[in-house]
Specification:
This is Type II methyltransferase. This protein is α/β, with parallel strands linked by helices. The protein has two domains: 54 residues, no CATH class; 259 residues, Rossmann fold (3-Layer(aba) Sandwich). Strands 3-9-10-8-7-4-5-6 form an eight-stranded mixed beta sheet. It has a two-stranded antiparallel sheet with strand order 1-2. Helix 7 links the parallel strand 7 and strand 8. Helix 4 packs across helix 5 and helix 7 crosses helix 8. Bound molecules: S-adenosylmethionine (SAM). The site of S-adenosylmethionine (SAM) has 27 residues, from helix 5 and strand 5. The site of S-adenosylmethionine has 27 residues, from helix 5 and strand 5.
């Protein structure tokens, strides 16, 4: 960290290792390379920088001996998928258009999941498609067919624009409420090999958050049918209802993959949403939880939450929950 006198820029240590300039306050001590120590810290002797790195919810301590081999097998063998996908240029798969959505998923990550859970010619369903992370992931692979349902037409339009611009196959999109899934002619009789989705989690996005991803902001839509707008207590029941219908379209031995990010715990509730979701989905007949992968998104910045008084987790990871239909 470089300290330059006369510059009052606010200090944030980013996960990208960006250097920050600022003047010291009277209670701050320059610890050189370690960063700045806050003498009001009653918890430990860490500098702000050390604190911020400690509260990262993901800590990688193991490194492969052979980098090449690690790259090759990383996806299959690691329970933690560490990524830093580009957010501009050709390799971003139209991220600059997709970013009108509060939480677009990277198609490259989805592509790897689809490649694991389906064969060529496979059909994939996403009942909450947003701007099409799942559909784009399917199109990045050879001969996959995907169907997406989304309430908000402008997200579908954006998806279509990305397909055109990136010269990717446009998959089937349906502007509808996912609650109607079994009444939609184009899909009601289709057996799917994989359901891969990233649902809205109740009114999570509109809540004031302390240790969350600051990129997630605002509600997805103002539509009252949007699962993102239903009260938290009602959400689980509604979500299970939709998934119960969707799962009737899933082939026997087909997989269900759900993205989920935990919320900050409170003294009233642990808020491990991933665990609540697993409990809820397991109430559905013939669907079984098989485990999870953790996705560590390294494009998200670290912030010194709680510093210098108390531990607040910097959640840079999401759960990829994996279920299988077994009749
Ligand atoms: C977390 S986002 C999905 C983002 C997506 N994975 C992507 O890459 O863009 C969830 C989406 O579900 C949509 N949604 C919410 N309730 C819905 C419903 N009842 N039927 C269909 N779509 C719904 C929201 O508008 C939102 O775009």
């Amino acid at each position: 960290m470089t300290l330059v006198e006369g510059n009052d820029e606010k200090g944030i240590i980013s996960s990208k290792g960006r250097k920050v300039k600022r003047i010291l306050k009277e209670y701050e001590v320059d610890k050189g390379e370690r960063g700045v120590y806050n003498s009001k810290n009653r918890l430990n002797d860490l500098t702000g920088r050390e604190w911020t790195f400690f509260i990262n919810s993901v800590q990688i301590t193991d490194f492969a001996r052979d980098e090449k081999e690690f790259e090759l097998w990383k996806f299959l063998q690691e329970s933690i998928i560490e990524t830093r996908y580009p957010t501009n240029g050709k390799d971003s798969v139209g991220h600059n258009l997709r970013k009108i959505h509060p939480s677009p998923k990277p198609p490259q990550l989805i592509k790897d999941l689809i490649a694991f859970f389906t064969k060529e010619g496979g059909w994939i369903l996403d009942p909450f498609m947003g701007v099409g992370g799942t559909l784009l992931g399917a199109s990045l692979l050879e001969s996959r067919n995907a169907v997406g349902i989304e309430l908000e037409k402008r997200y579908i339009d954006t998806y279509k624009e990305v397909c055109k611009r990136e010269a990717l196959k446009e998959q089937l999109t349906l502007c509808d409420d996912a609650r109607n899934i079994l009444n939609i002619d184009q899909i009601k009789n289709r057996p799917f090999d994989l359901i891969l989705t990233d649902p809205p989690y109740a009114d999570m996005l509109s809540r004031k958050r302390t240790g969350g991803d600051r990129k997630d902001k605002g509600a997805f839509t103002s539509d009252e049918r949007d699962l993102g707008n239903v009260p938290f207590e009602q959400f689980f029941y509604e979500f299970r209802g939709i998934m119960e219908k969707a799962i009737t379209l899933l082939k026997n031995k087909g997989y269900l993959v759900i993205f989920c990010k935990d919320m900050q715990p409170t003294n009233k509730y642990h808020n491990m949403l991933h665990s609540d979701i697993v409990n809820e989905i397991c109430k559905i007949k013939n669907i079984y939880f098989k485990g999870y992968k953790i996705w560590y998104d390294k494009t998200i910045n670290l912030y010194p939450y709680g510093y210098p008084f108390s531990y607040v987790s910097n959640q840079l990871h999401q759960f990829i929950l994996i279920f299988r239909k077994e009749e």
